Amino acid sequence: MSHSVITVKGLKKSFKDKVALNNISFDVKMGEILGIVGHNGAGKSTLINTMVDIYKPDEGDVEYLFDRKSMYDHIGVQMQKNYFEGNAKVIDICNLYKKLTKSDIDLDEMLDGFGLSKEKDTYIKKLSGGNVQRLSILLTLINQPEVVFLDELTTGLDPVARRKIWEVLREINRKNNVTIIITSHFLDEIEYLADRIMILNKGEMVYLGGVTTAIDQYSQGEKVIEFQIKDPMASFKLDKYGAIPLNDDRYQIYTKDDEKVLMELITKVGIKNLVVKSPTLEDVFLKIAGYKLDKEGRIINE
Ligand SMILES: Nc1ncnc2c1ncn2[C@@H]1O[C@H](COP(=O)(O)OP(=O)(O)OP(=O)(O)O)[C@@H](O)[C@H]1O
Ligand SMILES: [Mg+2]
To answer: Which residues form a coiled coil (predicted)?
Structure first.
């Protein structure tokens, strides 16, 4: 295992009497992609902001492998909220960042990689939301950081644009061994990108480890049965199976005894649109904290 580039010890952060982070300790390994997931208000942004010195923790500390004074030469931070001067052109702000960070990066190549070549001379106020998001990730990478923090990686992007960003990040991770810390509401994104995931729940770290390990640990050989019931009035019959309601009158049941349960569902409950599958990270999530997801796969409840 490679050595740690960041060590977080006993972090605690409250806002008035609201505990946003409680006793969080972990290491970030050099060259890994760490994905942080959790419901709205779980503490993801607070954790990132504390790690990069924007917030001071109430307790605990964050140690970096490199000198703290030159920290911002080594890290890149994309915050959840970004404000850019709307009256500047894309290329102007890129050049400004390049100059400020004394970077020798090839801007044309970078703009191309982010699908922004055509927008080079577009005023920022005229950019689509997705392109602003791409630009903000690009700017985070201009100083060729060793560690990158990306809060809400691809929020606002369409599926094709998301995939593009994933590939760019994978490439800088593999080619340049850049350590990447991302937060996301999209579990498919984390499943695809992250070497390890951290699950935050109400400011507590409830899981840290490999994605497949999380799935194995929590699913324990169970299968997921997903279905709709023909008669919504029959939903009480699902109680004994511990069915989890999803959107659109769909339900999920976890069971090691999938054949028996299926037979009962078909004969005694009446179901349609049936799917039987091995659990994904999303399913494990639903199970750990009873989360629900919206149609796009975002976590919507606590
Ligand atoms: N600057 C602040 N002042 C007061 N409360 C804050 C502040 N920042 C965060 N909080 C509170 O701390 C808790 C954690 O918030 P945080 O923004 O870290 O969550 P999050 O996981 O990033 O959520 P989201 O998914 O919505 O981005 C929330 O209850 C939030 O209201
Ligand atoms: Mg946040």
So the answer is: none
**Atom 24 of ligand 1, residue of closest alpha carbon:** 40
18 in contact with ligand 1, CB cutoff 6 A: yes
List pLDDT tens digits, range 244-288. 888 778 898 989 999 999 999 999 999 999 999 888 888 777 767
pLDDT in the model for residue 101: 87
- The finding on whether 273 has its CB within 6 A of some atom of ligand 1 is no
Domains and CATH numbers, the chain: 4-215 (3.40.50.300), 223-278 (3.30.70)
Residue with the nearest Cα to atom 11 of ligand 1?
20
Q: How far is CA 149 from CA 132, 188, 238, in A?
A: 17, 19, 43
CA of 49 from ligand 2 middle (Å) equals 10
C-beta neighbour count of 103 within 10 angstroms:
16
- The beta strands (E) that lie in the chain are given as 4-15, 18-29, 33-37, 59-64, 75-78, 147-150, 179-183, 196-201, 204-210, 223-229, 244-245, 250-255, 271-277
Distance CA(51)–CA(137), nearest Å, equals 18
84, 135 contact by CB (below 8 A): yes
pLDDT tens track for 225-249: 999 999 988 889 998 998 888 877 8
Q: Which ligand is nearest to the CA of 44?
A: 1
Token readout for 253 is 């049941």
Kindly report the average pLDDT of the chain as a whole number. Answer: 88
